[in-house]
User: Fold this.
Amino acid sequence: MRVGIIGATGLVGQRFVSLLANHPWFDIAYLASSPERSGRKYGDAVHWVIEGEIPENVRDITLAAMRIEDIYRADLDLVFSALPAKIAAEIEPKIVKEGMTVISNSSPYRMEPDIPLINPEVNATHLKLLYLQEERGWRGRLVKVPNCSTAILTLPLKAIASKACIKKIYAVTLQAVSGAGKEGVPALTIIDNVVPHIPNEEEKIQKETKKILGEIGNGNINPAPFTVKASINRVPVLDGHLIHIFLETCEEVETEELIQALHDFPNNEIKGMNLPTTPKRPIIVRYEPDRPQPRLDRLAGNGMSVTVGRIDAENKTIRLVALGHNTIRGAAGTGILIAETMYRKGIS
Amino acid sequence: MRVGIIGATGLVGQRFVSLLANHPWFDIAYLASSPERSGRKYGDAVHWVIEGEIPENVRDITLAAMRIEDIYRADLDLVFSALPAKIAAEIEPKIVKEGMTVISNSSPYRMEPDIPLINPEVNATHLKLLYLQEERGWRGRLVKVPNCSTAILTLPLKAIASKACIKKIYAVTLQAVSGAGKEGVPALTIIDNVVPHIPNEEEKIQKETKKILGEIGNGNINPAPFTVKASINRVPVLDGHLIHIFLETCEEVETEELIQALHDFPNNEIKGMNLPTTPKRPIIVRYEPDRPQPRLDRLAGNGMSVTVGRIDAENKTIRLVALGHNTIRGAAGTGILIAETMYRKGIS
Amino acid sequence: MRVGIIGATGLVGQRFVSLLANHPWFDIAYLASSPERSGRKYGDAVHWVIEGEIPENVRDITLAAMRIEDIYRADLDLVFSALPAKIAAEIEPKIVKEGMTVISNSSPYRMEPDIPLINPEVNATHLKLLYLQEERGWRGRLVKVPNCSTAILTLPLKAIASKACIKKIYAVTLQAVSGAGKEGVPALTIIDNVVPHIPNEEEKIQKETKKILGEIGNGNINPAPFTVKASINRVPVLDGHLIHIFLETCEEVETEELIQALHDFPNNEIKGMNLPTTPKRPIIVRYEPDRPQPRLDRLAGNGMSVTVGRIDAENKTIRLVALGHNTIRGAAGTGILIAETMYRKGIS
Amino acid sequence: MRVGIIGATGLVGQRFVSLLANHPWFDIAYLASSPERSGRKYGDAVHWVIEGEIPENVRDITLAAMRIEDIYRADLDLVFSALPAKIAAEIEPKIVKEGMTVISNSSPYRMEPDIPLINPEVNATHLKLLYLQEERGWRGRLVKVPNCSTAILTLPLKAIASKACIKKIYAVTLQAVSGAGKEGVPALTIIDNVVPHIPNEEEKIQKETKKILGEIGNGNINPAPFTVKASINRVPVLDGHLIHIFLETCEEVETEELIQALHDFPNNEIKGMNLPTTPKRPIIVRYEPDRPQPRLDRLAGNGMSVTVGRIDAENKTIRLVALGHNTIRGAAGTGILIAETMYRKGIS
Assistant:
């Protein structure tokens, strides 16, 4: 399958490039970035900041302009979008209208009822609603990747929801600087410091979590009935979002039973599909009292596993700590996993 | 008043020295540290790591051995203890038995029913229970400074408790490396990382908060009736503990009313005493969405104020973020404020 | 004296504001920043990032546009410029042409023969050349503050030059992130990293050092006859540039003699002027093997002293390490010291 | 070959374990650490701090006591030592006396005339002198790995020495915290700071560089005739030592010629041996103005390549910046490369 990446020189764009360079199913056939870079070779135009070198087979691809005609002419099966919100809001619908499928990491449209917001192990079934997009007059399809923290948070929540009805969720995040992009957080702001604020982040976590864990009903997604309260921090960590979670449940759960459910996370949604990007275990349970830690656990399962630890349950209250790689599980990796899921399900 | 500091070369010991060097009421008349340092001048023996230089008038004081006889002979009115837990557990009762008052930052005995655990603006009245110590055969008195996070947390909790009955508290801390002492956290552990674990810290926060906000009754302190759940982190910050707090209350509170209560924190307990170490405002409310921050707010009120922000209340749930200096408000500063309170109240 | 600050909301602008807010001679009478901020109050428009709060008496000053007419109409005795290089190159000459004195921290014109580049304790005599500017048709005067590293480096060099003829200088700098401004260095670039590059910085150090230590002759400054080789680094430090220096000298010097010369740095140039911003000692010698350090020494002499250590001399080679605050001694502080020097000398 | 590692739980010990776990020639047959850990399984006793998990095939090896009899009985072909200096000084000679070969990363004996100090691509020929050790009555052999900075520095020096006679070397290092071991540098010392001191480090670099680049003559190593001046820093970087180098040469060299020599570094000493641990290029030349950087370049050549950049030469002065992984090229990796070289040469 021929795939394109738009917003290919940003930080999430680089992750898409890195993860797709040797992908068994997808070939990078098109890369686009901001207009002033178009016409230059990817290897010359990008300021590469992620680990490893720029993949050899991508280095010489010429960056295209991001015009609809060009994208259309590139004859792509799929477009991955890592565009900034404002540009995404404008361009993505135009591409989809022309008949192409876009899997997008950008925030606009995530909460629209007919736009599936997918974390494959959690809610691949929500892809069923894609047909609703025909009513917009779109010939293609638009699928959204969740906000980075939400993608990490919803995996253990789904596992826990199989054992207990959740009434209320409190989440406090410690988010890495890479979440704000290549130049998003100035060093002068964050050295010897933490900042308890990222614009709109708490709202995204609160709303998206309820949508992802919601149920399909009446041709719609009914948001999960629990309350989510999020309080966030930016911390001086390069990659990896850590989330402290407290859950109030309807009935008592045993800590051991909970650990088992997390460890065995059945992954019904995409189980048995043998997707190239699925990690062996979507959730890894660590038993050491000082884990998970961003630097030690962020690359577990090639960045696609969420590591959980410090699990305990008493008095209908569960506490756990979850850690995931914010630009892999929290962005590009999940985008690719969505594409693989759709491919296997025959959706396009 | 002649005061002594035991454990004077450690990080909290250095804070005591720094804050007492020019104190209007207290004169440093005795400094002790580990046996191998005794006999050396303080300025030569200490590895000074806090901001500013070693105070001139302390530099030449000779470090004493920490023997009871020596302490006794020094004719002190008061001893501040910044000893490690194990040594404190053994030595502090011996000093008190001999008739001296010890104000101690160490954790042992904090939860004993007859040992007041004091954050002066919150529960100075608990000092009333000191007479109970006579039953131990002690001729002196022992008062404990709360755990660093607890000292910071209980100030806004007290203010809020005046407006709403608190049912449940969730607290997630982001704690500075200085909390572990001069060499407590290796750089290799914490650069590009956070660690969601400090031994026994969560238990301390949970229990001490209930004791400090408890009520005197029947010659005892009845712990506050709410539940406290704490989940903690060590972060790459030098000084300043940040705490994300969610509170569940019995009834609705208005955000504005809450902000007012925090801002006006009446500080009944020690109001009007004009103590040298009281900050102008024990609680400072910041309205910017990205405050408080450790580096920008830790020295507010000379390190004795707790800065709060991101306050909102809805559906009987309050969210706020609090920040305090962990070795000033969270240790030495509060120790000195206790001493001042006792002095004004005529307790010794 | 009524002074203005142009570029007042940037990092160096904030230092100017902070240092001038309570200055005994100078009153802030005019503040300007980028056009989109003009008309707003300083306290609302600035993103304040330096220690302490915005000075009360500055908070409510309305930011002016940076038009020549406005500056002229403000009836200023002096303008401090903290403008970005490109804007400074265009605007500063226009202001000077109109008859105003500008003391500028920006790099353009620093190497022009008729523009004094002044580090007051080192080369205040170079101000003599200001009359040359009349030939440009300027009615005012333009004086330049050296590059941050050069301002720090030239103080100990001047002291050493009094004891030995210097043949060659090798300098390796470890520069703080604040040197690049509020948002100059992304956290993603510098956490767990150092970057051995800052555009044009090495050239600036090499050329400016020779000009500052040069001698007046024939109505011109003859650059010092030694060679300077600089190699630079950006490091994850907030404030304070550390410089490792190797000097090759014509003859042997004794280490002790050298230490004496640094310690006694006679400061002939502005000695006895009693300027408000002169530190008690322009150079502070530390004898501990692990000093100077940025975090511990950057605020020595209120940020105006350069701390040196690790001094030794053998085989006509001197080694020392110097540390100064890059936005005080290396920028705003030196700018103000120049103004004070000119005022005392009756130049304006 | 059956190999043992003594000092196996420290940071360099962990690197030895990690690099040897799947080595094609060497099998880990013995691991020893401090007495209190002996008898425990490696996986339980070690506080693993390097990237990746503990190798599966090492996890269950029981830690031995470090008694000579035990080592002897383990029937090893080779022992790698990562012991602290003091213990190494005592134990290593005893093991060698018993007939075993020890390749040691510890500093004692490095400067002894009959102990080869080897960086294989630079001076593998120095192994010839091993026969001298018979005079000590040793039945085995002792070979030393250079100090971490020296191992990195001597690779480009050797390449340059092939093009120009070197008169003087100035080196300023920016060294990672891992160089001091797992708990060597407290976070409180190094966050927002650099420290221009590591005990004895400068002396080691100065002396060892001259020995490694020395020539064999008269059954001895004549140190290289140039002068080395080193000035060092500890910086808040996890892994990777960066070194700024200035070289004074007897005659002019062209920058281009120099780059060529570094790029083509012929590696005569061990060329053609096809050793498993040799990197494809011992020296990698980067042309970007902001490279090398610790985080981006430390794992080049699996941590065995030294990356150089910022190369220029003029007026008989060369400037370059070199970067290497301090616990791989600067310690365990070079130790293993020495073992491979000796094995190929038939020395044991």
Q: What stands out?
A: Chain C has two domains: 2-147+332-345, 148-325. The longest helix of chain C spans residues 328-345.
